[in-house]
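<tokenise_the_fold>
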Amino acid sequence: MGSFACRFTKTEVTALASRYSYRAGDRLDELVSSARERGYFTKPQFLDLCYWKTPRSQSRVDSNSDELIQEATRIALSTPHERLRIGVLTLLYGVSWPTASVVLHFAHRDPYPILDRRALWSLGYDKPPALYTFGFWKEYVEFCRAMAVDCRVSMRVLDRALWQFSKEKQPRQEPDEL
């Protein structure tokens, strides 16, 4: 696990997370509780969750059938295989690795970080990889899980801290650099 290096200390995590404020993130906990209990997402729930991550993909995500969304999310929430958890979600039209990570972050019983350019910057990546791979994803998840344990916080608190640190400290990028 050598490629990630946090740009802030573990003593800063709670304070950073407390300053986090982002588009209706708290209501997502409510939205996913019934999906978690049921074992899959309905299409409206899934669309809401994906919209929170990236409104730009909404029309593409909406083109997936109810049945496909239900089956893909059922598999992602129930399989013991890490690669299948993330991979089955990316098979849905309009669902990229970052969006799939949101589903796992909020709905899976195991802790998952959100894959986001801000979080990656906070962990030492000036630019996210051009192409995500399972190996990169797995290393990212393991690093964040270990960091959350080391900091004695939930993955949600760690995720908020990573996002907030970038928001406060990352140099502004030009739109063509994103």
